Amino acid sequence: MAILELRRRATSTKSFAPTPEQDEIICAPAGAKIFISGIAGSGKTETLIQRAIQLIGNGLKPDRLLILTFGRDRADYLRDEIALGAKTIADEPLARTFPALAFSIIRMALDNEVRDPILLSGAEQDQVIRELLKTDLEENLSQWPNLYQQALSTRGFAKELRELISRAKEWDLTPDQLLTLGIQEKEELWKSAAKFWRRYEEVGVLRDSGVADPKERIDPSELINRAHHYLLTKPELQSQVEKLFDIVLIDEFQESDPAHRRLLQIINPKAFSIFYDIDSTASRFRGADPEGLPQFLSNFAQGESERVWKYHLLNSFRKCEEIEVSEHSSIADQSRYIVEKFRSDHLRDNIPYSEMAVIVRSPGEHLTSLRRALSIAGIPIHQESGTFTLADSGAIKPILLIAEIALGRKEINRESFSEIEELLFSEFCGLDPLRLKQLRLIINQNREEGDLTPTNEIIATSLLEADPLLISSSADSLIQFKPLLNLVDLIKRVRKIANQKNSTVTDIFWEIWSNAKNSEGMLIKDLWRERALSSHSNYESGSADRDLDAVIELFEGARRHVERFPDSKPDLFIDELKEATILGDVIAPKGDRSDQVTLTTVHSSKGYQFQVVAIIGVQEGSWPNLKARGSLLGSERLVDIQRYGNLARKELSALAMSALVEDESRLFHLAKSRSSEKLIITAVSREDDEPSQFFYDELEAHPSKIEESSPLTPNGKIAQLRIQLSDQKSSESERKKAAKLLKALSLNGFAAAKPERWLGFHDTSSETPLVSENEPIYLSPSEIEKFSECQLRWFFEKFGAQDGQASAALLGSALHAYAKLIGDGELELNEAMSRLAKTWHLIDSNLGWVHENGLASAVRTLTRFFQWQSGNPRELLGTEVGFELSLGKVIIRGSADRLELDDSDRIIVVDLKTGKSVETQKSMGANKQLATYQMALSLGAAEEIVAGRQLGGAELIYPGTDSQSITVRSQGIVDLDLIKAEVIETASLMVGPIFVATINPGCQQCSVRILCPAQNSGRAVCN
């Protein structure tokens, strides 16, 4: 029996040499009251950890020590470091957040009449608010102004309303006080918000659909207010809490809001050490109040200022001496630059990827582009949860879609096929575009005659129940369908679980995770585990760790949801996931991080340091982001009134803008202070997007000269050597050196270094003509026209290089077919239009208005042709008249759309053009296609119809144009001998082997211009 043993890497030991000031703080008496401010990198957190270890080592019981911080991850870090350093076990958490402390206090205050509290997440709170706003839309119980009625249904309005209520609670306001303030400040929205808030509070026990075990659900700001209220109104509880802890240590206290500070004040700790740095505040947008911190600390120490020790740590341990500032012309160039810098630092300076980070102001195209570039370069990455949502994770998206299909939440039709296709291409099915195309071919081969159901629809609906076409296919075909059948079977199993009476969202997710297979029939759960454990590539194992972390977070979130709402429907949790804007704060174990570059936002980077940090996208309008926060409901103005008093609106606006600029400066300072050795700052300069003043300030302070470095990838190095080898400006010794290196690389298996793979190395593959001397040359009138425009385009398209024209060609063929049926009298216009509408999906695969607009245009063309034919005075002799004419070894084959007889008993050749591009009348004399028709008919082609009649010329008919009347272009009788000679000459040129590229008006629409040496794009390939 094999035993699987998981081993973590050995914990790295930290060397911390405290300064004399830090040593005083660490060794201070247990009863000391200390304020410690310090700049970023001055070791505040490490000093707190060492003080906690020192106190425990001196005999303080761990349970008598309360450590507070901001964020669960930070609390986890402090707990681990203190536990490892003190080698002790505590019955209570050594470190916790302020909401966690408040929750514990509320639990202590519970009696039989109070329901168990549960903490509302931001997404849950938004959902409750949106449900209440729906009632306001119908009845307007909160009396919202008419101007804002349409906004009530939006997520943005619900979010702003939540922010306003949260800020009001943090500043200890009540609904009545907000209403009074709204009247005083003439803020109509505040008055309505106050009424809404009162209703929100009156709900008491909030219920979701299907929840049978209601609990008292409290949002984070109310949680702390409630704890404060219980301590204030229950003296025995306050006394009990005060006796719990001997010492309180607080990290990053600048991130506290007024509610946190009220809670700390009422706890009245006997001894404390409070660490803070106002310049590193990152959470002001969440209510942090750095401006009010000095006044609070002064009030907190009032009456015993002589007993409070104060320290200012001004020595930073992060000595970032190398700063590079670079400006780029595009986001792609910026990404390539960062990739090369990171690879160079890793390979040349032996800096681990885990000591590198990319920091952005907020997620967006800069981060997306860089992540893609790092992935392509094979550099492993770890993306912090604050930069994406769980529902958008590539690992979770297929699971959610499978669950939605099984629950009947996702409609299966042509419109939803783009999502279905994404699922089919995911690892949970494993198809690719080629195999999907093969499936469509097999379906078409096995369908019944007359079945016009689109293959997309057959594939999509088969997910609910395997289509008979799939099951009845041959054994060889069934292999192609196997991944799809595995997915069908999985959905069937999940539907069975979902239909069980007591099944939960966790049961549904577990059924998917336990049974999902890839295209080879391997279980996904086993494949990902094996990939994470056995991969020798940091990139592959990092990707596997990231996917498994996402799955664990999904199950942890689902478990927590089911635990809190035992009888809730699975739909509720799926909606909550899909509506989230960032990944929720979920306590879940994560994979042991290997050597990976960290991608993070400035807010998530707090508390971390790296040797190399790149701050990217320092753009005007985004960093600094000076857009007013809470602009509609004015939550920031509410805070400013509480902070500065009831000043005039202009004064408050000026103060708010000044605070916003200062806050953005703090964030930029915070991002820069994450680096201990090397800092890279980049921005992009392009149309309507330029670097910000922050960037230019750094560029002025640290002017950087970007030097081109040697490529660090095999292909990059080979490309550089090839350029050096072929550059006539290079010296003889440099070219010889490049040749030797290329030879060495070639002998060691680098295919790109082998000369035989280089373009231009081989001679022309063949100079043999396309047709041997004794073989006939076949051509059509339309080919003669194309060849006269551009020989090279004719050659490429003749032998398979044409792409992107399938739909247009199919449309033209269909309209020609209907025109023939109408012209022959076999079909009325209404019947033709009906048939065209029924089969349009086979011609045009687009959806929505594009599909409908294309059909309307085709019907209009058909109708205009019918109208033209009805008013055409000439007699119709035949449609699609095929003919063949031999001119020696040249054989002309073709078919004329229409042959008509005019009132002078002359034959007119009519060619139908379904496009919108119209030839000029002036150029009609040189139209080779029509001239060839005339020549062929004059020399005896289609004798059974022509019957000795004379020709009267030819016409082009354009029913598809937008002109009021149908456009007609006429060609007179041509010189038959001249056309015959031109056709024979054209046929001789078609044999090749040389074909000339000619610049002509059709170049813009040419599908093979990328291969044409007469075009810039083709010249780069061919030269």
Describe the model:
Helices cover 48% and strands 12% of the residues. It contains 38 helices and 20 strands. The chain has a six-stranded parallel sheet. Helix 11 links the parallel strand 6 and strand 7. Helix 13 (331-348) crosses helix 14 and helix 32 packs parallel to helix 34. Mean pLDDT is 79; it is low at 204-212, 471-476 and 582-591.
Number of strands: 20
What integer value in Å does the Rg equal? 38 Å
Q: How would you state the average pLDDT, rounded? A: 79
- Major beta sheet summary: 6 strands, parallel
Shape: elongated
Number of helices: 38
Provide the β-strand percentage band.
5-15%
Q: Any low-confidence stretches, pLDDT <50, length ≥5?
A: 204-212, 471-476, 582-591
N-to-C terminal Cα separation, in Å?
Answer: 63 Å
